[in-house]
Give the backbone structure.
Amino acid sequence: MLNGLMLPALMLALLIGAAWRRLPMYDLFVEGAKEGMRVAAGVLPNLAAMLCAISLMQASGLMEALCGLFAPLFAWLGLPREVAPLVLLRPMSGSASLAMVERLMREYGTDSRIGLIACTVMGSSETIFYTICVYMSVARDRRTGYAAPCALLGSLLGVWLAGRLF
């Protein structure tokens, strides 16, 4: 019951606070909506390119080829071959990797080693390239610096621990 009232209470508190400070609420809302639309318009082409690349990888068989190429690395990490596509897909797409985790759990079970590793990979990693794509499309500076390599290293360590723990 209390969870259902949280959002309306927050909205009411914001309105009361804005009225207390005599802020032009409607004008501020419209400005925020305009800025949100500008951000969405800037991000949309990058997201479309990312989704097309993922679809092409899966349809062309590139994903299977990459899984075969990285099979020795995944074996060294202690990962079952069924989880390999998830490890490759997770840095690019959250929704596609979530669908893959759901399929793995339906097929192998939630308490299976594959299900536990898939959940750990999903929870301990981030959609690195998606996040960088969104941030860099909004930022004027296109250089990512060490963000991508450090995020990939952290994700690899999470995958390695998942393979060792289960």
